[in-house]
Specification:
Arc Repressor Mutant, subunit A, two-stranded antiparallel sheet, 5 strands, 49% helix, binds iron/sulfur cluster, MarR family transcriptional regulator, transcription, transcription regulation, MarR/SlyA-like, DNA binding
Length: 222
Amino acid sequence: MTEKFHIATGLAKIGLYLRAEGWQQAESESLTPTQGQILVHLVRRGPARITALAEELAVTQPTASDALSALIRKGHVEKRSDPADGRASLLHVTTQGRRVAEVMAEWPDALLSAIDTLETGEQAVFLRGLTRMIRELQVRGAIPVQRMCATCSFFRPNVHNDPAAPHHCAFVDAAFGDAQLRLDCGEHEPAGESETSTLWQKFLGTSSGEVDAPPAATGETS
Ligand code: SF4
């Protein structure tokens, strides 16, 4: 068995643990895992249409629809008309739903402790590896588009000479390193297709020049 199969086995074991935790957490709030995911998603991203929700959570529309009907029945979500289109409706989390979502959004202590066993440098390497894998899955259409730095128009990869913080986020105007790469950022602004490809090459350090000039001209200094 080669390393890649060992890695796949390890990921499957962590996935199994997270699925079991997800069921347990959802059950404690009398929800299904899909209902819990929808609730957390609506709190993090704000009101959404059902089609967008199904797409972002990679579930079918009937599955999202069933879960939403249950959430509305339980008083966690309500439908309001979309100000942008009177014929469409947006799903909003109620105050009660927000309280439940806070519980659902907590990561299990055991998982956080396991991550803490990695040194800071190991965490950075791990996060960079995860970013590469998630990007590949996204390119292959295996998962929905993720709101990660590597596909964000605010991302300036490898623009600083500091090995601990070579990247720059133009949204917060700050330098950061691989250990702070985001995989689900609320401020993410999707870059265009060709821009994403350029960003990706620069992130991997395979573009010509390797390190660009710092973005001082646009006020994006570290
Ligand atoms: S806005 Fe978020 S996703 Fe975009 S570069 Fe900054 S931290 Fe990364």
